[in-house]
Structure formats: structure tokens, C-alpha cells
Please model this.
Amino acid sequence: MAVDMKPYAGFELGKSFNREALVADQTTIEQALTAAKQKQTQEKQEAQRNTEQINQNTNQIQGIERTLPDQQRRLTAL
Model:
């Protein structure tokens, strides 16, 4: 989510303090922060799923590798 980096309206030089603009800016920042946190959580969950899948695949490969010598002996015996 892109955040508008314009100067905060409440701090414009030569103008009176604008509380409403600051509150709106704060709300926008909070929404962007919430969206970033949600995206980070989703990315962490995806990374965890990927890690679990890699571990599962590794276990399957290791299981196949353990049976290869026996299978080779059987083929040689034929």
C-alpha cells in the first residue's frame, strides 16, 4: 500500500493548527501500518507453509534414497 508522503497539513507554515488534517493523516498512517502488518503476517504464514512443504519433500526424497540400494540389488539379480 502506497503512503502519500505530502507534508502534513497541520504543520503548514503560516497557517493555523489544523487538528482535523492531522487526525486524517494519523488515520491514513495507521491504516497503512495495519495493512503492512497484515501483509507481513501473510508472508510469514506462506514462508512457514513453504518450509513445511520443503521438509516434507526432503523426507520423501530421503525415503526414496534409502530404498535405492535394495532396488538396485533386485534389478541386478534379474
In short: The chain is about 75% helix and 0% strand. The two ends are 64 Å apart (CA to CA). Residues 19-77 form the longest helix (59 residues). The CA atoms of residues 4 and 59 lie 48 Å apart.
